[in-house]
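Example record used in the benchmark description.
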Amino acid sequence: MKIIDLAPGDTRLLSDLLPVLRELRPHLTEDLFREIYDEGHGLGLRFTAAYDDDGRCVGAAGWRIVVNTSTVRSLYVDDLVTASDARSTGVGRHLLTYLQEHARETGCHLFTLDSATHRTDAHRFYLRERMAIAAFHFQKELG
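Model output (structure tokens):
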């Protein structure tokens, strides 16, 4: 497995990563994805792709380093998805390991992510990976 951080403008963002990311975020069009990364990159948003031995993108992660009063310095994962036909093959574990190592190297004290309440398979995976349910996430539509 090969894991690569993709910079803005890298053509693999649209050709490789976005189709996998859309399995988790189906609302993303190419234009919307470009807009989000153009603005988000300046705020720390990064994307990482996992490739299998045949060179096919089988995993995607969106993440950022966050500095705030609650976690001090943490790596927060916005998106973590494995292609549906590559699940249970270790892709998610490889991405988590890669991102956790990056977090350590950059001085982060915590590794955090949110997972929607209906994603029970993902919850089982995170718990197997020794992650704890540490908080509730609240939101309100602002219409």
